[in-house]
């Protein structure tokens, strides 16, 4: 790094945390940091107060009617919101399935961490940085100026605080849930986790002695260990061998075909037709399977992944075969083809 010293990194095993959001270790370090006149950044992967609301009696989860995902609870506005399509509805007082009023709020978002920190440190000045709180260029500038003037003691934020920020008085970075991105259905999940944790940790120690506390349920995970050691070569060697064994980039080129339809049966039927039409092409074909989010924006989605040796040959083959005459439906209306997909 160009500025400051590499911060010391420590791990907190949260497997026996009994639902704690902040470990005792992190709480003590925040208190010490504030007493020394320095600042703390707390990174939280998700917005909102809770990532889901669930009935404590029958288990019903409040899911977006347009997307196959739980809605996020925003305490400040008293609403449930889908962060994919923007659907909003008020938080009900009872479960629509069984009528119980025993509604539980699960998962941790920036609002919940902000609330918890405010209770633990009532005398400290806390600022939240996420897309719900920071909605304009002027609000970003105002917040960054406050941090620079030392008018903020603790910043609670999402990816907005992970890179590009250089504040010399940030002595502590706490990563609330280091495991969030490890479980993503994406072959790049480990790479992205390593990158994210390294970037957010790099906000500490740019002008004063810095420290990073990583809260995790997987302290023995190889990605977490590589972040602690700071050994980029170790992580690269492990990751490249894994991708070679699974034949993922850079050893193969990828094409993702997503089939969308208004009902699940049509989506599956069209996806099978696509598979049958392009079987025998110059690629390895995987699928069709349901997309990680099966229903999105009121569309049901199936996906087919192609692993290619020569990308141009695969593209030419698809152009010749994914036609209305061969598929018996218009591909423009139902297919999305993503060459070298960044996410799944």
From TrEMBL:
<dbReference type="InterPro" id="IPR027417">
    <property type="entry name" value="P-loop_NTPase"/>
</dbReference>
<keyword id="KW-0547">Nucleotide-binding</keyword>
<keyword id="KW-0067">ATP-binding</keyword>
<dbReference type="InterPro" id="IPR001650">
    <property type="entry name" value="Helicase_C-like"/>
</dbReference>
<dbReference type="Pfam" id="PF18319">
    <property type="entry name" value="Zn_ribbon_PriA"/>
</dbReference>
<dbReference type="GO" id="GO:0005524">
    <property type="term" value="F:ATP binding"/>
</dbReference>
<dbReference type="GO" id="GO:0006310">
    <property type="term" value="P:DNA recombination"/>
</dbReference>
<feature type="domain" description="Helicase C-terminal">
    <location>
        <begin position="111"/>
        <end position="208"/>
    </location>
</feature>
<dbReference type="Pfam" id="PF18074">
    <property type="entry name" value="PriA_C"/>
</dbReference>
<dbReference type="GO" id="GO:1990077">
    <property type="term" value="C:primosome complex"/>
</dbReference>
<protein>
    <submittedName>
        <fullName>Primosomal protein N</fullName>
    </submittedName>
</protein>
<keyword id="KW-0238">DNA-binding</keyword>
<dbReference type="GO" id="GO:0006302">
    <property type="term" value="P:double-strand break repair"/>
</dbReference>
<dbReference type="InterPro" id="IPR005259">
    <property type="entry name" value="PriA"/>
</dbReference>
<keyword id="KW-0479">Metal-binding</keyword>
<dbReference type="GO" id="GO:0046872">
    <property type="term" value="F:metal ion binding"/>
</dbReference>
<dbReference type="GO" id="GO:0003677">
    <property type="term" value="F:DNA binding"/>
</dbReference>
<dbReference type="GO" id="GO:0043138">
    <property type="term" value="F:3'-5' DNA helicase activity"/>
</dbReference>
<dbReference type="GO" id="GO:0006270">
    <property type="term" value="P:DNA replication initiation"/>
</dbReference>
<keyword id="KW-0235">DNA replication</keyword>
<dbReference type="Pfam" id="PF00271">
    <property type="entry name" value="Helicase_C"/>
</dbReference>
<dbReference type="InterPro" id="IPR040498">
    <property type="entry name" value="PriA_CRR"/>
</dbReference>
<keyword id="KW-0862">Zinc</keyword>
<dbReference type="InterPro" id="IPR041236">
    <property type="entry name" value="PriA_C"/>
</dbReference>
<dbReference type="GO" id="GO:0006269">
    <property type="term" value="P:DNA replication, synthesis of primer"/>
</dbReference>
<keyword id="KW-0639">Primosome</keyword>
């Amino acid at each position: 790094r160009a500025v400051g010293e590499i911060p010391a990194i420590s791990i907190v095993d949260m497997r026996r945390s009994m639902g704690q959001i902040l470990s005792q270790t992190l709480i003590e370090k925040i208190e010490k940091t504030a007493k020394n006149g320095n600042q703390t950044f707390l990174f939280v992967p998700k917005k909102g107060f809770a990532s889901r609301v669930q009935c404590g009696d029958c288990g019903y989860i409040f899911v977006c009617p347009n997307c196959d995902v739980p809605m996020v609870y925003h305490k400040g506005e008293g609403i449930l919101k889908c962060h994919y399509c923007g659907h909003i509805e008020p938080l009900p007082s009872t479960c629509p399935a069984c009528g119980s009023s025993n509604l539980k709020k699960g998962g941790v978002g920036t609002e919940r961490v902000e609330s918890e920190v405010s209770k633990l440190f009532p005398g400290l000045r806390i600022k939240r940085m996420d897309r719900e709180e920071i909605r304009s260029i002027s609000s970003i500038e105002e917040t960054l100026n406050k941090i620079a003037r030392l008018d903020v003691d603790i910043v609670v934020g999402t990816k907005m605080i992970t890179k590009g920020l250089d504040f010399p008085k940030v002595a502590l970075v706490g990563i609330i849930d280091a495991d969030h991105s490890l479980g993503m259905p994406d072959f790049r999940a480990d790479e992205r986790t390593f990158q994210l944790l390294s970037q957010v940790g790099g906000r500490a120690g740019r002008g004063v002695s810095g420290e990073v506390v990583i809260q995790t349920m997987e302290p023995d995970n190889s990605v977490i260990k590589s972040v602690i050691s700071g050994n980029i070569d170790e992580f690269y060697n492990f990751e490249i061998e894994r991708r070679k064994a699974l034949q993922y980039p850079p050893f193969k080129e990828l094409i993702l075909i997503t089939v969308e339809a208004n009902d699940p049966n049509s989506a599956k039927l069209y996806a099978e037709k696509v598979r049958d039409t392009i079987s025998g092409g110059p690629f390895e074909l995987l699928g069709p399977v349901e997309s990680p989010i099966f229903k999105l924006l009121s569309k049901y989605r199936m996906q087919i992944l192609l692993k290619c040796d020569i990308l141009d040959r695969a593209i030419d083959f698809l152009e010749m075969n994914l036609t209305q005459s061969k598929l018996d439906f218009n591909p423009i209306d139902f297919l999305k083809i993503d060459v070298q997909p960044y996410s799944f």
